[in-house]
Amino acid sequence: MRKIFLLLGLFLFLLGCDQAEIDDYFRWGPVSPEGDSLVVALERGYAAGISEDSLDVLAARLQRVAEENGNRQLEARSRFWNARLLNKRRHRAEAVEELKKAISLSDSAKYPYDQARFRHLDIILSPRSIAETHHILKQIEKFHSRRDDHVMLAHVYIDIANILHDIGDTNRALAYYMKADSLYNVLGMKEFHLKTSLNNASILHTMHCYDESGKIITRLLDDDTAKADFDYYNTVMFTASEILGSRPLLMNAYRELQGRPEYLSRGHHYEVALAESYLADGEIDSALIFIKKAIAGVD
């Protein structure tokens, strides 16, 4: 019962956002007062890293309001948020289906911001070739840049940086990561600022800036906000194991995933890393254990 009252209190607090914030901060065009406020509450809650239960309460309320109003655009936004929360839980297939429904319902001409948000999530859920993905992300970047939308610019900067990092263009990737990090810092979005810090640590290590990357990753390992997010902190430990050369950190990150089937793919990635670590130290028997585990998990 106490939990229900806490969630209700959070909902009422977030619902108090005024209409101007929709245009001035998150840029969703107005549809209905209650539905608009719920969308802003979801944005704020997601950015602040509130619990998934709390986000579910808001998303369920948005869905009910959309149904009660019979408004297609509000239903499209509801489907979008369902997709986003499903993806957060690593239920990609269900997220893809919800997003398809959102796109089919949306009036892209009247609500171009919605279209940009839906396209952005679509490219993350259903990636194309590197060239096509980069092209679409650059289009989205131009859209948000014209509207001076710093929140969404930071998001798209990270995705562009990830592609540049993947193809080995580390200097440009770092520039994009740092631009995103700077925006999140100014906006006061600590959770996202932490995540870009992890990107910066990783790429600085790739560029052999070991002191800088080591300082960032050590700070993240001790950060209470980072520790509160299981998925993120597990990635921090894995990245730290690479940057600091620590097999115990890698093993801890791997053990945390046991009994969590949604992280099966990541676990196999860790098994390969553990095998490489043991091989580097000449511990062949231990390496073989993890090689066999990784091979057994190959689809």
Short description:
Helices cover 80% and strands 0% of the residues. The protein has 299 residues and is mostly helical.
What's the arrangement of secondary structure elements?
Blueprint: H1 2-15, H2 20-26, H3 33-48, H4 52-69, H5 72-88, H6 92-105, H7 112-125, H8 130-146, H9 150-166, H10 170-187, H11 190-206, H12 210-221, H13 224-227, H14 230-244, H15 247-256, H16 264-280, H17 284-296
Account of the protein in words:
The chain is an all-alpha fold and 299 residues long. 80% of the residues lie in helices and 0% in strands. The protein is built from 17 helices and no strands. The longest helix is centred in the first third of the chain and has 18 residues, at 52-69. The radius of gyration is 21 Å and the shape is globular. It starts with a helix and ends with a helix. Mean pLDDT is 88; it is low at 1-23.
For this structure, the quaternary state is single chain
How far is it from the N-terminal to the C-terminal residue, by CA?
A: 44 Å
The biggest beta sheet is recorded as:
none
User: Tell me, what's the shape?
Assistant: globular
What is the element string, with H for helices and E for strands? Answer: HHHHHHHHHHHHHHHHH
Gyration radius, rounded: 21 Å
- Number of helical elements: 17
Keywords summarizing the entry:
299 residues, 17 helices, disordered N terminus, 80% helix, mainly alpha
